[in-house]
Specification:
Elements lengths: L15 E8 L10 E8 L6 H11 L19 E4 L2 E4 L11 E5 L5 E4 L2 E3 H12 L20 H11 L6 H4 L2 H5 L5 H13 L7 H8 L13 H5 L6 H14 L3
Parallel strand pairs: 1-5
Antiparallel strand pairs: 1-2, 3-4, 3-5, 6-7
Helix pairs in contact: 3-6, 6-9
Length: about 250
């Protein structure tokens, strides 16, 4: 049972929020996409995650949406909030109007209501770009890895902060027009493994994976990925770096 701490009577009357949710169950042939309004009373410090759980617990248990960590780490609760990709668990209702819209992220396969299958697309992208460390020969699992300079480790960690929420893809104009575009998340992974000294692939090996219009040259530089990334990763900076490096190598 979900318990919310309401505002004290002397702090003013809490707002009544109306969440207009785009609903559709593709597994049901009779389901038609439609908007459905839910009204909740705002609580101090309420997030969209809390509001959606209250709706599902007290109004409609069939409402579909995803969550795991509730701390902006897993990326599962990503959705369109007033038309902008974002995380429900990190969005405070006080930053929204009394009426707002919630919709599933575009581009990804719809599971139902606000739930989309980002995992299927991300697995396909990982296999397509081979985003794992490629070491020469069979690695000695008992051997200690060579020391890495702190600056390099920090640069790799910065790109590893991606939580694979899909917001960058959902906010990408190119992805909406070119379904095979790997998006900022794929380009970020290439940049990350290119920095890793444990990976023995050459620049040419990396850039053959992304050197076309479905890769780094397809990006229209609209900055959508950069603007909506909940972890504020330097996505456009990495894309620009990859382009410059590829041009220097004659790609």
């Amino acid at each position: 049972m979900i318990r919310l701490f309401r505002k004290a009577p002397d702090s003013g009357r809490p707002r009544r929020l109306t969440a207009s949710v785009l609903r559709h169950n593709p597994a049901d042939p009779a389901s038609v996409p439609h908007w459905q309004d839910f009204v909740v009373e705002e609580a101090e410090g309420m997030t969209l995650f809390i509001a959606l759980n209250e709706i599902r617990a007290t109004q409609d248990p069939s409402l579909q949406f995803d969550f795991v960590c509730r701390a902006g780490i897993c990326g599962s609760c990503a959705m369109l909030i007033d038309g902008r990709p974002g995380l429900a668990c990190r969005t405070l209702t006080r930053d929204l109007g009394e009426r707002f819209t919630l919709a599933p992220q575009p581009f990804f396969e719809l599971i139902g209501d606000l739930s989309v299958n980002t995992g299927k697309w991300l697995r396909g992208t990982a296999e397509r770009l081979r985003t794992w460390v490629h070491a020469a020969g069979r690695p000695d699992l008992d051997a200690l890895e060579e020391r890495m300079a702190p600056e390099l480790a920090e640069a790799i960690y910065e790109l590893d902060r991606c939580i694979e929420c899909g917001c960058c893809v959902a906010g990408c104009g190119t992805a909406q027009m070119r379904p095979d575009f790997i998006g900022a998340i794929g380009l970020n992974k290439i940049a990350r493994f290119r920095l890793d000294p444990r990976d023995t692939r050459s620049d040419e090996d990396f850039y053959e994976l992304i050197g076309d219009d479905d890769g780094v040259f397809g990006c229209m530089s609209l900055l959508g990925c950069h603007d909506v990334c909940p972890k504020q990763l330097p996505l456009q900076t990495q894309i620009a770096f990859l382009r410059r490096r590829m041009a220097a190598l004659g790609f």
